[in-house]
Amino acid sequence: MEILRKLSLVIFVAFLFFFKSVLCSCKIEVKNLVTKGAVEPLFLSKSLNPEKYYFNIPRNGFITVENGEDLYSFCRQTKGKPPVLTRSNCINDKFDPPINTVCPQDQAPIAKFYNSRSCGQNLEGRIFEIGYELIAPDKDNNKIVHFMPLTTVCHNKYLESTFYSQHVLYKGNMGKSMKTFGTEYWDSSGYDENTADNVKKYYNDTNEKAFFKKINLNTDDRLSKGHLNPNGDQPFQSWKKATYFYLNQVPQWQVFNQNAWENIEYNVKKQSDKADLIVFTGGHGQFKIGARDVFMSNITGSYDTVPRIQVPKLIWKLFFNVETRHCLAFVIMNYNFGSDAFEKRDPEMCSDRDDECKNLDDKRLKNNINNVNAGFLSCCSYKELTKMIKYELNHEGAPLKCLTSDEIHKSENDILAAPFSVGFSAFTYSFSKTKGKNKLIYQKFLLNLRVQQ
Q1: Sign of CA dihedral 417, 419, 423, 429
Q2: Which residues are the signal sequence here (predicted)?
Q3: What is the pLDDT of residue 442?
Q4: Counting Cβ atoms within 10 Å, is residue 337 exposed (0-12), middle (13-18) or buried (19+)?
Q5: What pTM does this model have?
Q6: SS3 (DSSP) at 314
Q7: Residues with Cβ < 8 Å from 126, sequence gap 6 or more?
């Protein structure tokens, strides 16, 4: 009897310890993390096998670290001083030592070029990744450089034009990101020297107005730098800054950018309330005024043998729901409201799919479908999109495997009819999701699993 009593006590204590370790956590609210003029660090987690650092992904507006787990903060220092990586452990709902939330200097994102990785139509593009370099010691205290990308870009170096960019929109952060402070700064890294030197002139208001007047286009509109990976999708100031690369933009008419396109970005962001989304955004085709192909280099009067920075006639965005593997693409004409060039829908646009579009919960977006004043917005399946752009999309080296609505329903029915062991396996992975250091390994495993299936 005494043995049973002691065993019961041990089980009870173990349960309390387990309950506390699972439910207790340290949290930092992202939205009010820093005040005006302050700079936040990069917040990181670390896996042990393999030893690697990852961005700590905020959920529902909070950075969350389980009891007993670590959170790292990385800061660049003032000139001449090495960067600092600090570790804080979550103990009884508090960080020990207290987590560093302010850096003395802004972070510096970089663009990394992969010449051997082809992409885009006719494989004419090359892969760039935009992100941050982390200098950190390994287990033997040797300093090594980790590169952590936030945006993958497929860019045509010959025309200095971007096919598409890709990023992840993380679940639950809509409306809960950090406030932005400071002015925009566009980075021309990745362009050749001549283009990098001139790209700011291409987007100059005075130059654009003179160009439009010269070609008899009567408009007060202008071509703006249209984010592909939008800064509004990013939870941190540092992540927002990493979107301000010319590699991550295509020329968009300003009125279009602030109306029809803004509605699309809002709707896609709204989908991330339900699940993580892998988002691809790109331009397609050649924008023309009359018979003239429009490139941004033309606007400064530069007519080189090779024109630079193509103005696309169509803009598209596709999101891949990581949980359901459902995809939906939006395609819209890069529309200039001051021109009568677009009285008809472009024949290359993918056809509407009422079954895919009917569930849109944004009335503004619904009103834009097939509306001449909103660029003839259409939404379609991944298969129809690839017919238009003429190339496949990849994530982490694997082809994107999208399901239609019908295939999702069939998949759900198959899961319900599957043996209990399948359900138990799914439960095991879901349970491991709550355990700190396993969280990132689990997320990466699950993402790869779903994409490669």
Answers
A1: negative
A2: 1-24
A3: 39
A4: middle
A5: 0.84
A6: strand
A7: 113, 114, 115, 117, 118, 119, 154, 155, 156, 157
| Residue position matching structure tokens 């202008």 | 222
**Is 227 one of the catalytic residues?**
yes
Could you give the maximum distance between any two Cα atoms of the chain, in Å?
98
Residues 99-111: what's their mean pLDDT?
Answer: 89
How many residues are recorded in the chain? 453
* Per-residue pLDDT tens over the stretch 118-150: 999 999 999 999 999 988 766 666 677 889 999
Chain segment 381-428, per-residue pLDDT in tens: 899 999 999 999 988 778 888 887 677 766 666 644 544 333 323 322
Integer Cα distance of 226 and 253 in angstroms: 8
Q: Which helix (H) or strand (E) holds 238?
A: helix 237-241
In 3D space, the residue among 115, 35, 122, 42 whose CA is nearest the CA of residue 75 turns out to be 42
Q: Which residues contact 380 (CB under 8 A, 6 or more apart)?
A: 328, 329, 331, 350, 351, 352, 353, 356
CB-based contact 379:331 (threshold 8 Å): yes
One-letter amino acid of 275: A
Nearest-angstrom CA–CA distance, 335 and 226: 13
Question: Above pLDDT 90, what percent of the chain?
Answer: 41
Contact 26, 33 (CB under 8 A): no
pLDDT at 132: 94
Instruction: With CA atoms as reference, report the closest residue to 395 among 447, 340, 321.
Output: 447
Q: What is the pLDDT of residue 414?
A: 62
Are the C-beta atoms of residues 246 and 190 closer than 8 Å to each other? yes
Tell me which of 146, 167, 227, 326 is the catalytic residue: 227
| Bridge partners of residue 17, in order along the sequence | none
Contact (Cβ atoms closer than 8 angstroms) between residue 221 and residue 338: yes
Using DSSP's 3-state secondary structure scheme, residue 331 falls into: strand
CA distance 66 to 437: 9
Helices (H) and strands (E) in the chain, counts: 13, 21
C-alpha distances in Å from residue 209, one per residue of 203, 214, 216, 292, 309: 10, 9, 10, 17, 18
> How many CB atoms are located within 10 Å of the residue 419 CB?
8
Q: What is the pLDDT of residues 326-358, one digit of tens each?
A: 899 999 988 765 555 566 788 888 876 656 666
Cα–Cα distance measured from residue 211 to residue 289, given in angstroms and rounded to the nearest whole number? 12
Whether residue 336 is annotated as binding a ligand: the answer is: no
Q: Amino acid identity of 57?
A: I
